Protein backbone atom coordinates (compact mmCIF):
# COMPACT_ATOMS: atom_id res chain seq x y z
CA UNK A 1 0.00 0.00 0.00
CA UNK A 2 2.89 2.33 0.69
CA UNK A 3 4.19 1.68 -2.79
CA UNK A 4 0.76 2.41 -4.23
CA UNK A 5 0.56 5.64 -2.30
CA UNK A 6 3.96 6.71 -3.54
CA UNK A 7 2.95 5.90 -7.14
CA UNK A 8 -0.28 7.92 -6.77
CA UNK A 9 1.72 10.85 -5.47
CA UNK A 10 4.09 10.67 -8.42
CA UNK A 11 1.05 10.47 -10.72
CA UNK A 12 -0.50 13.57 -9.24
CA UNK A 13 2.76 15.50 -9.38
CA UNK A 14 3.20 14.41 -12.98
CA UNK A 15 -0.34 15.54 -13.84
CA UNK A 16 0.20 18.92 -12.23
CA UNK A 17 3.55 19.57 -13.84
CA UNK A 18 3.33 17.91 -17.25
CA UNK A 19 0.90 19.00 -19.93
CA UNK A 20 2.07 16.34 -22.32
CA UNK A 21 -0.51 13.48 -22.55
CA UNK A 22 2.13 11.00 -23.61
CA UNK A 23 4.12 11.73 -20.43
CA UNK A 24 0.94 11.25 -18.36
CA UNK A 25 0.24 7.93 -20.01
CA UNK A 26 3.77 6.71 -19.35
CA UNK A 27 3.41 7.73 -15.69
CA UNK A 28 0.16 5.77 -15.32
CA UNK A 29 1.69 2.71 -16.95
CA UNK A 30 4.67 2.94 -14.66
CA UNK A 31 2.39 3.22 -11.57
CA UNK A 32 0.30 0.25 -12.58
CA UNK A 33 3.34 -1.88 -13.37
CA UNK A 34 4.95 -1.24 -9.96
CA UNK A 35 1.84 -2.12 -7.97
CA UNK A 36 1.36 -5.85 -7.26
CA UNK A 37 -2.05 -5.73 -5.67
CA UNK A 38 -5.24 -5.83 -7.78
CA UNK A 39 -6.97 -3.56 -5.31
CA UNK A 40 -4.33 -0.91 -5.82
CA UNK A 41 -4.89 -1.13 -9.54
CA UNK A 42 -8.63 -0.80 -9.12
CA UNK A 43 -8.07 2.14 -6.88
CA UNK A 44 -5.80 3.73 -9.47
CA UNK A 45 -8.39 3.03 -12.15
CA UNK A 46 -11.09 4.69 -10.06
CA UNK A 47 -8.89 7.70 -9.53
CA UNK A 48 -8.29 7.94 -13.25
CA UNK A 49 -11.99 7.71 -14.03
CA UNK A 50 -12.75 10.32 -11.41
CA UNK A 51 -10.07 12.56 -12.84
CA UNK A 52 -11.47 12.14 -16.36
CA UNK A 53 -15.00 12.86 -15.17
CA UNK A 54 -13.75 15.95 -13.41
CA UNK A 55 -11.99 17.01 -16.60
CA UNK A 56 -15.20 16.51 -18.59
CA UNK A 57 -17.19 18.57 -16.07
CA UNK A 58 -14.57 21.31 -16.13
CA UNK A 59 -14.56 21.19 -19.91
CA UNK A 60 -18.34 21.43 -20.08
CA UNK A 61 -18.33 24.37 -17.69
CA UNK A 62 -15.64 26.09 -19.71
CA UNK A 63 -17.60 25.46 -22.94
CA UNK A 64 -20.74 26.92 -21.35
CA UNK A 65 -18.80 29.93 -20.10
CA UNK A 66 -16.94 30.55 -23.35
CA UNK A 67 -19.50 29.27 -25.86
CA UNK A 68 -19.61 32.46 -27.94
CA UNK A 69 -15.81 32.77 -28.11
CA UNK A 70 -15.49 29.07 -28.88
CA UNK A 71 -18.09 29.26 -31.65
CA UNK A 72 -16.33 32.28 -33.16
CA UNK A 73 -12.95 30.55 -32.90
CA UNK A 74 -14.30 27.39 -34.57
CA UNK A 75 -15.87 29.40 -37.38
CA UNK A 76 -12.70 31.44 -37.79
CA UNK A 77 -10.65 28.25 -37.84
CA UNK A 78 -13.00 26.72 -40.43
CA UNK A 79 -12.75 29.90 -42.54
CA UNK A 80 -8.97 29.89 -42.27
CA UNK A 81 -8.87 26.22 -43.17
CA UNK A 82 -11.13 26.80 -46.17
CA UNK A 83 -8.98 29.73 -47.30
CA UNK A 84 -5.81 27.70 -46.95
CA UNK A 85 -7.42 24.86 -48.92
CA UNK A 86 -8.58 27.27 -51.64
CA UNK A 87 -5.17 28.89 -51.76
CA UNK A 88 -3.52 25.50 -52.15
CA UNK A 89 -5.89 24.64 -54.97
CA UNK A 90 -5.26 27.99 -56.64
CA UNK A 91 -1.49 27.59 -56.29
CA UNK A 92 -1.78 24.12 -57.79
CA UNK A 93 -3.79 25.55 -60.67
CA UNK A 94 -1.26 28.36 -61.11
CA UNK A 95 1.58 25.83 -61.24
CA UNK A 96 -0.31 23.84 -63.87
CA UNK A 97 -0.94 27.04 -65.85
CA UNK A 98 2.72 28.03 -65.58
CA UNK A 99 3.81 24.63 -66.87
CA UNK A 100 1.33 24.96 -69.72
CA UNK A 101 2.60 28.48 -70.48
CA UNK A 102 6.16 27.22 -70.41
CA UNK A 103 5.34 24.54 -72.97
CA UNK A 104 3.48 27.06 -75.13
CA UNK A 105 6.38 29.51 -74.90
CA UNK A 106 8.76 26.78 -76.02
CA UNK A 107 6.50 26.12 -79.00
CA UNK A 108 6.22 29.86 -79.73
CA UNK A 109 9.97 30.24 -79.47
CA UNK A 110 10.47 27.50 -82.05
CA UNK A 111 7.86 29.11 -84.28
CA UNK A 112 9.48 32.54 -83.88
CA UNK A 113 12.90 31.09 -84.68
CA UNK A 114 11.44 29.43 -87.76
CA UNK A 115 9.77 32.68 -88.83
CA UNK A 116 13.00 34.60 -88.18
CA UNK A 117 14.97 32.17 -90.35
CA UNK A 118 12.31 32.40 -93.06
CA UNK A 119 12.49 36.21 -92.86
CA UNK A 120 16.26 36.10 -93.37
CA UNK A 121 15.83 33.73 -96.30
CA UNK A 122 13.17 35.95 -97.89
CA UNK A 123 15.36 39.03 -97.39
CA UNK A 124 18.27 37.23 -99.04
CA UNK A 125 16.03 36.17 -101.93
CA UNK A 126 14.79 39.76 -102.35
CA UNK A 127 18.38 41.02 -102.39
CA UNK A 128 19.25 38.44 -105.03
CA UNK A 129 16.22 39.44 -107.09
CA UNK A 130 17.21 43.12 -106.86
CA UNK A 131 20.74 42.19 -107.85
CA UNK A 132 19.44 40.16 -110.80
CA UNK A 133 17.27 43.09 -111.87
CA UNK A 134 20.24 45.45 -111.72
CA UNK A 135 22.50 43.01 -113.58
CA UNK A 136 19.95 42.69 -116.37
CA UNK A 137 20.36 46.43 -116.97
CA UNK A 138 24.16 46.21 -117.04
CA UNK A 139 24.53 45.65 -120.85
CA UNK A 140 22.51 48.78 -121.64
CA UNK A 141 24.30 50.90 -119.03
CA UNK A 142 27.63 49.48 -120.13
CA UNK A 143 26.96 50.46 -123.72
CA UNK A 144 26.08 54.02 -122.62
CA UNK A 145 29.24 54.33 -120.50
CA UNK A 146 31.40 53.03 -123.33
CA UNK A 147 29.78 55.42 -125.78
CA UNK A 148 30.46 58.37 -123.47
CA UNK A 149 33.97 56.99 -122.69
CA UNK A 150 33.37 56.78 -118.95
CA UNK A 151 35.54 53.71 -118.78
CA UNK A 152 36.08 53.56 -115.01
CA UNK A 153 32.35 53.37 -114.29
CA UNK A 154 31.97 50.81 -117.05
CA UNK A 155 34.82 48.71 -115.64
CA UNK A 156 33.46 48.83 -112.09
CA UNK A 157 30.01 47.88 -113.31
CA UNK A 158 31.29 45.04 -115.48
CA UNK A 159 33.64 43.55 -112.87
CA UNK A 160 30.96 43.71 -110.17
CA UNK A 161 28.35 42.10 -112.42
CA UNK A 162 30.68 39.27 -113.50
CA UNK A 163 31.72 38.60 -109.90
CA UNK A 164 28.06 38.34 -108.88
CA UNK A 165 27.15 36.13 -111.82
CA UNK A 166 30.06 33.79 -111.14
CA UNK A 167 29.55 33.90 -107.35
CA UNK A 168 26.17 34.16 -105.56
CA UNK A 169 24.18 33.93 -108.82
CA UNK A 170 26.13 31.04 -110.31
CA UNK A 171 23.25 28.59 -109.83
CA UNK A 172 20.70 30.81 -111.60
CA UNK A 173 20.24 29.06 -114.94
CA UNK A 174 18.25 31.92 -116.48
CA UNK A 175 21.34 34.16 -116.41
CA UNK A 176 23.63 31.82 -118.34
CA UNK A 177 23.43 33.82 -121.60
CA UNK A 178 23.99 37.11 -119.76
CA UNK A 179 26.86 35.52 -117.85
CA UNK A 180 28.58 34.45 -121.09
CA UNK A 181 27.97 37.86 -122.68
CA UNK A 182 29.38 39.87 -119.79
CA UNK A 183 32.29 37.47 -119.31
CA UNK A 184 33.20 37.87 -122.98
CA UNK A 185 32.99 41.67 -122.66
CA UNK A 186 35.19 41.55 -119.58
CA UNK A 187 37.78 39.45 -121.46
CA UNK A 188 37.87 42.00 -124.32
CA UNK A 189 37.43 45.20 -122.29
CA UNK A 190 41.15 45.68 -121.77
CA UNK A 191 41.74 45.81 -125.54
CA UNK A 192 39.54 48.91 -125.80
CA UNK A 193 41.28 50.53 -122.83
CA UNK A 194 44.74 49.76 -124.27
CA UNK A 195 43.77 51.31 -127.62
CA UNK A 196 42.51 54.43 -125.84
CA UNK A 197 45.71 54.55 -123.79
CA UNK A 198 47.88 54.35 -126.91
CA UNK A 199 45.79 57.01 -128.60
CA UNK A 200 46.41 59.44 -125.76
CA UNK A 201 50.05 58.42 -125.30
CA UNK A 202 51.13 58.78 -128.91
CA UNK A 203 48.48 60.67 -130.90
CA UNK A 204 46.65 63.01 -128.53
CA UNK A 205 49.82 64.28 -126.85
CA UNK A 206 51.60 65.03 -130.19
CA UNK A 207 48.46 66.69 -131.54
CA UNK A 208 48.55 69.10 -128.60
CA UNK A 209 52.19 69.96 -129.39
CA UNK A 210 51.29 70.48 -133.04
CA UNK A 211 48.41 72.76 -132.10
CA UNK A 212 50.70 74.88 -129.95
CA UNK A 213 53.22 75.10 -132.77
CA UNK A 214 50.53 76.20 -135.24
CA UNK A 215 49.40 78.91 -132.83
CA UNK A 216 53.00 80.07 -132.41
CA UNK A 217 53.41 80.04 -136.18
CA UNK A 218 50.33 82.19 -136.65
CA UNK A 219 51.52 84.66 -134.02
CA UNK A 220 54.98 84.91 -135.59
CA UNK A 221 53.52 85.49 -139.06
CA UNK A 222 51.35 88.28 -137.72
CA UNK A 223 54.34 90.12 -136.25
CA UNK A 224 56.45 89.30 -139.36
CA UNK A 225 59.18 87.72 -137.30
CA UNK A 226 61.64 86.04 -139.67
CA UNK A 227 63.33 84.06 -136.90
CA UNK A 228 62.61 80.35 -137.11
CA UNK A 229 60.00 79.01 -134.69
CA UNK A 230 60.77 75.68 -132.99
CA UNK A 231 58.27 73.16 -134.25
CA UNK A 232 58.55 70.64 -131.39
CA UNK A 233 58.52 72.53 -128.10
CA UNK A 234 58.15 69.73 -125.57
CA UNK A 235 59.69 71.42 -122.54
CA UNK A 236 56.32 71.74 -120.81
CA UNK A 237 54.92 68.41 -121.94
CA UNK A 238 54.33 65.97 -119.07
CA UNK A 239 56.18 62.74 -119.85
CA UNK A 240 56.46 59.59 -117.74
CA UNK A 241 60.17 60.29 -117.10
CA UNK A 242 59.47 63.81 -115.85
CA UNK A 243 56.59 62.47 -113.81
CA UNK A 244 58.85 59.88 -112.21
CA UNK A 245 61.61 62.41 -111.50
CA UNK A 246 59.11 64.71 -109.83
CA UNK A 247 57.91 61.88 -107.61
CA UNK A 248 61.48 60.99 -106.61
CA UNK A 249 61.98 64.41 -105.02
CA UNK A 250 58.86 64.11 -102.84
CA UNK A 251 59.35 64.05 -99.09
CA UNK A 252 59.52 60.67 -97.38
CA UNK A 253 56.49 61.41 -95.24
CA UNK A 254 54.23 62.11 -98.19
CA UNK A 255 53.14 59.65 -100.83
CA UNK A 256 54.59 60.05 -104.29
CA UNK A 257 52.79 62.05 -106.92
CA UNK A 258 52.23 58.98 -109.04
CA UNK A 259 50.63 56.99 -106.22
CA UNK A 260 48.53 59.90 -105.01
CA UNK A 261 47.24 60.74 -108.45
CA UNK A 262 46.33 57.15 -109.26
CA UNK A 263 44.60 56.49 -105.94
CA UNK A 264 42.69 59.76 -105.86
CA UNK A 265 41.61 59.72 -109.49
CA UNK A 266 37.82 59.70 -109.78
CA UNK A 267 35.66 59.83 -112.84
CA UNK A 268 33.26 62.75 -113.17
CA UNK A 269 30.30 61.78 -115.32
CA UNK A 270 29.27 65.43 -115.78
CA UNK A 271 32.35 66.55 -117.75
CA UNK A 272 34.14 65.39 -120.88
CA UNK A 273 36.34 62.45 -119.79
CA UNK A 274 39.05 63.38 -122.33
CA UNK A 275 39.29 67.00 -121.26
CA UNK A 276 42.33 66.27 -119.10
CA UNK A 277 44.51 63.72 -120.87
CA UNK A 278 46.61 62.85 -117.82
CA UNK A 279 43.54 62.16 -115.69
CA UNK A 280 41.99 60.16 -118.52
CA UNK A 281 45.09 57.98 -118.82
CA UNK A 282 45.06 57.50 -115.04
CA UNK A 283 41.44 56.36 -115.31
CA UNK A 284 42.43 53.91 -118.04
CA UNK A 285 45.26 52.50 -115.91
CA UNK A 286 42.90 52.18 -112.93
CA UNK A 287 40.37 50.35 -115.10
CA UNK A 288 43.07 48.00 -116.38
CA UNK A 289 44.15 47.33 -112.81
CA UNK A 290 40.57 46.44 -111.85
CA UNK A 291 40.49 44.07 -114.82
CA UNK A 292 43.87 42.63 -113.69
CA UNK A 293 45.29 43.24 -117.15
CA UNK A 294 48.34 45.35 -116.24
CA UNK A 295 50.84 42.70 -117.50
CA UNK A 296 48.99 42.51 -120.84
CA UNK A 297 48.98 46.31 -121.00
CA UNK A 298 52.74 46.54 -120.41
CA UNK A 299 53.38 43.87 -123.04
CA UNK A 300 51.13 45.66 -125.55
CA UNK A 301 52.92 48.96 -124.94
CA UNK A 302 56.30 47.29 -125.42
CA UNK A 303 55.19 45.51 -128.59
CA UNK A 304 53.67 48.63 -130.16
CA UNK A 305 56.33 51.08 -128.96
CA UNK A 306 58.49 51.00 -132.09
CA UNK A 307 55.52 51.15 -134.43
CA UNK A 308 53.93 54.06 -132.58
CA UNK A 309 57.21 56.01 -132.42
CA UNK A 310 57.64 55.55 -136.17
CA UNK A 311 54.14 56.88 -136.66
CA UNK A 312 55.00 59.90 -134.50
CA UNK A 313 58.09 60.56 -136.64
CA UNK A 314 56.02 60.15 -139.80
CA UNK A 315 53.30 62.50 -138.60
CA UNK A 316 55.84 65.02 -137.31
CA UNK A 317 57.73 64.94 -140.62
CA UNK A 318 54.52 65.53 -142.55
CA UNK A 319 53.58 68.32 -140.16
CA UNK A 320 57.00 69.98 -140.46
CA UNK A 321 56.88 69.73 -144.24
CA UNK A 322 53.38 71.16 -144.42
CA UNK A 323 54.27 74.00 -142.06
CA UNK A 324 57.46 74.74 -144.00
CA UNK A 325 55.61 74.75 -147.29
CA UNK A 326 52.93 77.04 -145.91
CA UNK A 327 55.61 79.31 -144.43
CA UNK A 328 57.42 79.45 -147.76
CA UNK A 329 54.20 80.34 -149.52
CA UNK A 330 53.61 83.17 -147.07
CA UNK A 331 57.15 84.51 -147.47
CA UNK A 332 56.99 84.32 -151.28
CA UNK A 333 53.82 86.34 -151.23
CA UNK A 334 55.65 88.98 -149.23
CA UNK A 335 58.51 89.08 -151.78
CA UNK A 336 60.91 87.58 -149.25
CA UNK A 337 62.40 84.53 -150.99
CA UNK A 338 64.53 83.87 -147.98
Automatic annotation (TrEMBL):
Assigned GO CC terms: exocyst; growth cone membrane; synapse
Exocyst complex component Sec8 middle helical bundle domain span: 273-323
Coiled coil: 45-97
Keywords per UniProt: Coiled coil, Exocytosis, Protein transport, Transport
Disordered: annotated span: 1-21
TM segment ranges: none
Pfam families for the chain: Sec8_C, Sec8_N
One GO-annotated biological process of the protein: vesicle tethering involved in exocytosis
UniProt cross-references to InterPro entries, sorted A to Z: Sec8/EXOC4, Sec8_exocyst_N, Sec8_M
Exocyst complex component Sec8 N-terminal domain sequence ranges: 46-144
Keyword Nucleotidyltransferase: no
Superkingdom: Eukaryota
Stated family: Belongs to the SEC8 family.
Functional summary from the UniProt entry: Component of the exocyst complex involved in the docking of exocytic vesicles with fusion sites on the plasma membrane.
Designated name of the protein: Exocyst complex component Sec8
Native source species: Dryobates pubescens
Upper lineage: Eukaryota, Metazoa, Chordata, Craniata, Vertebrata
Amino acid sequence: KMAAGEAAGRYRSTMSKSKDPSGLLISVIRTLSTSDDVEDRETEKGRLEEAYEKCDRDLDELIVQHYTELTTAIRTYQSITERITNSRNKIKQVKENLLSCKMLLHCKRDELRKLWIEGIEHKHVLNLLDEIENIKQVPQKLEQCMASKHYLNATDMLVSAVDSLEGPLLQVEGLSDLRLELHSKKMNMHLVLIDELHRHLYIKSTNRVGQRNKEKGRISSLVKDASPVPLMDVTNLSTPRKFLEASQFSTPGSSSMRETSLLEIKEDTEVDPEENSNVFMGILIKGLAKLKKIPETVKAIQDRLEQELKQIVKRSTTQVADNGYQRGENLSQENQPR
